[in-house]
Amino acid sequence: MKWLVGETTEILAALNEDAELTQEDNQHVEEQVRQIIKQVIENGDQALKEYSKRFDQVELEDLLVSEEAINLGYQRVEDEVIEALEAAKENIISYHKKQKQYDFMDTEKRGVLRGQLVLPLARIGVYVPGGTASYPSSVLMNVLPAKIAGVKEIIMVTPPSSNSIPDVILAAAKIAGVDKIFQIGGAHSIAALAYGTQTVPKVDKIVGPGNIYVATAKKQVFGVVGIDMIAGPSEIGILADQTANPTYIAADLLSQAEHDTLARAILVTDSTKLAEQVEKEIYRQLDTLPRKKIAEVAIKNHGLIIIASTVEAMFTIMNEIAPEHLEVQLADPISYLHEIKNAGSIFLGEYASEPVGDYFSGTNHVLPTSGTAKFYSPLGVYDFVKYSQVTYYTKEALAQAKDAIALLARKEGLEAHARAIECRFD
């Protein structure tokens, strides 16, 4: 792991320099994705089947997963897994339903009505990753907030594997209430959702994490459809002092490192002794980790221990990092809550381990990465609605405002605007 020690300004400068050095040149990926999208627009389902054969080594007859296949997949999943998914669903719903917003109208001035309508999106697309692991939790996290928002139709895409989708993914989709599942992945599935094909319907918004090709495709189709965010590799930041348990910290850092060789695991502490204990514990735990090869590369290339001079400096540094997941393992962690300015999801105390949020607490695990927590939020019910404004004026109310409106319109050189108001009183 890399260490950074010094004054706060020096550490922040080093972090900024490191960020600049690790920026990838993605021009090749951008062009590849652009061509994939073009082929899907022009050739529809045929392009999807060809790309599935090329990228997933799967020859598909049907892109749509049948209801029978979904039900059979559900039935093959162990009862205890179904029970765990149902319990997670209950927690996700109980948390996210508090985010629901409602219409409002006000009549503060006589003859004037102003308001806002909260309107659910008609149809959304959910991308569920495949590859080295299956993520039923991502199904629940993306679909359930949309259901609470009132989305009428939810389309799911996920990469095929040996001509089938993992049973646990099908079970999670059934539990969450997905309307249709298509066994396609990668950039071509994003293109299909954005533009529609003979089989795949066009959606209004695409959500869900994916690899660099999926993220690039989402970026390129934005504007044709809405997207949630451009997600990068997973990351965790931990703030800890001498009271923290190094075994817990090491385990939590590895919980993100095992996701991806590009995952970032960062500890910020004011205790050199704790830092040394954590580093030693990480390598001890790595020895028995099934995904050791992935986690070891992530720790070597993107693992970071930062020694800060004070607790205040620790928060300054972590707020600049703006991690996807932030654990606060300090004495009396709740008292520090308002020192946190930038983080996707916050975990307070040594027993709020990050995987609690990944699977069970009900908070969402689709989160802003790569410092974007400075201006992005976790996925929520609010991502699946849009807002329309409402205005009503009586003639008497407009009469009181007409001179001010016409004055401002003419000040901007927009005579027709002024006349549109004044003609109602000629």
Describe this structure in words.
The chain is an alpha/beta fold and about 425 residues long. The chain folds into three domains: about 1-25 and about 230-375, Rossmann fold, CATH 3.40.50; about 45-225, Rossmann fold (3-Layer(aba) Sandwich); about 395-425, no CATH class. The protein has 16 helices and 14 strands. It has helices spanning about 10-20, 25-45, 45-55, 65-75, 80-95, 135-150, 165-175, 185-195, 210-220, 245-255, 270-285, 290-300, 310-320, 355-360, 395-410, 415-420; strands at about 1-5, 105, 110-120, 125, 155, 180, 205, 225, 235-240, 265-270, 305, 325-330, 345-350, 385-395. The strands form three sheets. Strands 1-11-10-9-12-13 form a six-stranded parallel sheet, with helices on both faces. The protein has a five-stranded parallel sheet with strand order 6-5-4-7-8, sandwiched between helices. A three-stranded antiparallel sheet has the order 2-3-14. Helix 10 links the parallel strand 9 and strand 10 (about 265-270). Helix 5 runs parallel beside helix 7. The mean pLDDT is about 95.
Lay out the secondary structure.
Blueprint: E1 2-5, H1 8-21, H2 27-43, H3 45-56, H4 67-76, H5 79-96, E2 104-106, E3 112-120, E4 123-127, H6 136-149, E5 153-157, H7 167-176, E6 180-182, H8 186-195, E7 205-207, H9 212-221, E8 226-227, E9 235-240, H10 246-257, E10 264-269, H11 272-286, H12 292-302, E11 303-307, H13 311-321, E12 325-329, E13 345-348, H14 354-359, E14 385-393, H15 395-411, H16 415-422
Parallel strand pairs: 1-11, 4-5, 4-7, 5-6, 7-8, 9-10, 9-12, 10-11, 12-13
Antiparallel strand pairs: 2-3, 3-14
